[in-house]
Amino acid sequence: MIDWQKHKVLLFYAASLFFLAMNAYFIVVRNSLAMNVMPIVLVVALLAVFRFHQLFFLVVALVPLSIPLVEFKPGFSFGVQLPTEPLLVGILVLFIIKAVADKGIDKKLVSHPVSLTIYFYLFWIFITSITSEMPMVSFKFLISKIWFIVGFYFMAALVFKLQQRYISTFVWLYALPFILVIIYATVRHASYGFWDKQASYVVVDPFFNDHTSYGAMLAMYIPFLIFFAFRKDRPLNKRIYSILVLGIFIVAVVLSHTRAAWVSLVGAFGVWAIIKLRLRFQKLFITSLVTLVVIILFQSQIVMYLERNSEESSANLTEHISSMTNITTDASNLERLNRWDCAITMFKEKPVFGFGPGTYMFKYAPYQITDNRTIISTNSGDVGNAHSEYLGPLSESGILGLLSVLLIVGTVIYTAIHAYTRAREREIKSLILAALIGLCTYYIHGFLNNFLDTDKASAPFWGFTAIIVVLDLYTKKVEPFTVNHQS
User: Fold this and answer.
1) Does 371 map to a domain?
2) Is the CB of residue 428 less than 8 Å from the CB of residue 468?
3) Could you tell me the CA-to-CA distances from 453 to 162, 356, 387 in Å, in that order?
4) In this structure, is residue 28 part of a structural domain?
5) Which of 34, 65, 192, 324 shows a CA-CA span of 20 to 30 A to 403?
6) Distance between alpha carbon 368 and the CA centroid of its chain, in Å?
7) H or E segment at 52?
8) Local structure of 76: helix, strand or coil
9) Number of compact structural domains in the chain
10) Who contacts 255 (Cβ-Cβ below 8 Å, separation ≥6)?
11) Tell me: the pLDDT tens digits for 310-359?
12) Least confident span in 8-22, 249-263, 399-413, 440-454
């Protein structure tokens, strides 16, 4: 490993001279914007060299507040979140430099079963990008996946290995800036009336592109906030503070009018109950199998029952919850079914390689059946994607695309449960469980929506996955936490 400390004085003066030279140049060419940006670039560069974990935390804290480039450059077609994605590119470069300089990254991490499934996931995206009908779109999709995974999984794992408390730091550095977004959205929502469902779609702009992704991220952090709020070994003032933050998140979930987020929370805490009750896998498997058989045998009656539900998504909370099962008149539900049907039809046409990663929104329009179209249907894919983290890869990367996603989900759940069972320290068990339940909210939400092409969702999704992997290694006593903060 490079010992940057031995060269810190030289590096400091080199950076300072470079900074002065660049500012002198920008003064000559009268580029005031570049002059203002240069100090930020210098700080980020120094963090990258001397304190990579602090650079990582800076990116995490900025994620909830990131804004699409199009907000500054209307009509700009290249989708980039500022300032996080440029910083993630820098982290990717830093990661490559570390890997070369240190002759590889932690072998236990890179060879972990979860890491292996991620390699397969990226490998198949690469293969299907080559066969894609829109290679430029697909390779752009692949590159963004790489910097999300490197930044929020591999680099996160390296940071978490330094000290256990950095896991909590990671959670809070996303949650606290998120409160600013919650306040912003709530104040805007108040001007429309809190139960104006239509207003909930736009009040989170420009930080989130719609209320569903906003609700999904709120739901992911609630399990961790519950853990922080009700830890008996924490000081009372910190518990009260955590309870307050938890209350803010719960209220925000309700006001988001995101039915999928509510469903995901209920389902995820069902998983929590199963783990806490220590129900045996055999019983769960038999129960799931019987449930599936019943659904298949009585599918006609179930559909007829759902079709009798005419409640549409509404400002009335009771009606809004009831509308979840309305597949007759609720435009949101019907459009989701339309997108799913398109994805399945596309898969049937190209079952092996699919149409190419990231291409669904450009290719699905011709596959819409007239009877399936709704008042919110579009041919341009500007109202969401495939609305599924599972059917999207199925249509874009074929059967192996779906399998790669399911392998990640299954391996993470398996790893978490075994690490939880193996752990002896109460706090470690709680951290594993909170990360797993947080991920389960998204695994469930993934049946109804897809957001992993954004920094907002990628940070907690891959970050929570890294938490589970690091704690799994710790419980095996092969990777103890260190106190070395050097990069």
Assistant:
1) yes
2) no
3) 28, 15, 12
4) no
5) 324
6) 28
7) helix 52-62
8) coil
9) 1
10) 185, 186, 189, 194, 200
11) 555 544 444 444 444 444 556 677 888 888 999 999 999 999 999 999 99
12) 8-22
